[in-house]
């Protein structure tokens, strides 16, 4: 049972990563680039299956850890926006001040959302 569960989990993980990577590649470089990505992905699967297990785990851990870098950059870059929205929420909900709700940080979307309300 455990072997089958691990097989299914690994297979679904590979499918998910392939799809997410393909969509990211399509977004960044266009639809024609997805074929190159898919070929490289399949080659990496083959290389990963034939390499030393310890090296495969070390590479996997390293690249998973490196994914934190763009996430941290995004968190730092968006922190002023989050603070602005949080201050608006605290003023309205917790302090019960008469403040207009912030529906978006972008003025044109804010106006559009206000009209829709």
Overall helicity: over 70%
Number of separate strands: 0
Residues in β-strands, percent: under 5%
Task: Give the structural class.
Answer: mainly alpha
Average pLDDT rating: 93
- Spans of 5+ residues with little confidence (pLDDT < 50)? none
Taken in chain order, the helices and strands follow as HHHHH
Helix count from the secondary structure assignment:
5
Oligomerization: single chain
Largest sheet: none
Q: Number of folding domains?
A: 2
What is the CA-based Rg, rounded?
22 Å
Distance between the termini: 53 Å
Shape: elongated
Provide a concise account of the structure shown.
The protein has 117 residues and is mostly helical. The protein has helices at 2-29, 33-50, 53-66, 68-94, 107-116. α1 (2-29) runs antiparallel to α2 (33-50).
Question: Any overview of this molecule?
Answer:
- The protein is mainly α and 117 residues long.
- It has two domains: 2-53; 70-116, no CATH class.
- Helix content is 83%, strand content 0%.
- The chain is built from five helices and no strands.
- It has helices at residues 2-29, 33-50, 53-66, 68-94, 107-116.
- The longest helix has 28 residues, at 2-29.
- The radius of gyration is 22 Å and the shape is elongated.
- The model has no long low-confidence stretch (mean pLDDT 93).
């Amino acid at each position: 049972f455990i072997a089958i569960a691990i097989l299914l989990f690994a297979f679904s993980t590979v499918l998910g990563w392939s799809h997410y990577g393909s969509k990211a590649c399509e977004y960044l470089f266009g639809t024609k680039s997805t074929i190159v990505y898919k070929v490289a992905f399949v080659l990496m699967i083959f290389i990963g299956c034939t390499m030393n297990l310890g090296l495969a785990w070390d590479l996997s851990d390293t690249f998973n850890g490196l994914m934190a870098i763009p996430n941290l950059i995004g968190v730092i870059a968006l922190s002023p926006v989050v603070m602005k929205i949080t201050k608006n929420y605290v003023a309205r909900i917790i302090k019960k001040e008469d403040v207009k709700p912030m529906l978006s940080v972008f003025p044109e979307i804010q106006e559009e959302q206000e009209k829709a309300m």
